[in-house]
Amino acid sequence: MRLNVAPDNEKAKALVTIAKITLERLxxxxxxxYPSNALIDYYDSIxxxxxxxxxxxxxxxxxxxxxxxxxxxxxxxxxxxxxxxxLQDMREYRNRIYYEGFIIDFEYITSxxxxxxxxxxxxxTTIERKIKGQNEKID
Length: 139
Fold this sequence. Notes:
Blueprint: E1 2-4, H1 9-28, H2 35-57, E2 59-61, H3 66-78, H4 81-100, H5 106-132
Antiparallel strand pairs: 1-2
């Protein structure tokens, strides 16, 4: 369910901070040994960036299918259909890891990490651009 709420730049900044900390930890970890954890970290960071964008825009998405709707909303506004499909696939893998014990292959991470980083760059740039209008910068 999509709700209109008051924009919250401070919450957006906090989400960006924790997403960047998660990515920092991911880059310091043994991805080859723990590829499923790497996918979870990438997904969770992206999810926080998506949430940050909606916080800035005054949108809250919650309830059943919220992750799917969040991806749909942000991609419609800020990313391509190709990126939307990719993020939905990541979401499905993340859910399978959590709920079915699915193991992601290291090859998935190595073959997609550059694309994931590109999406992250687009999202962080979008966040910076949206907050810049208020002369604030996210660390």
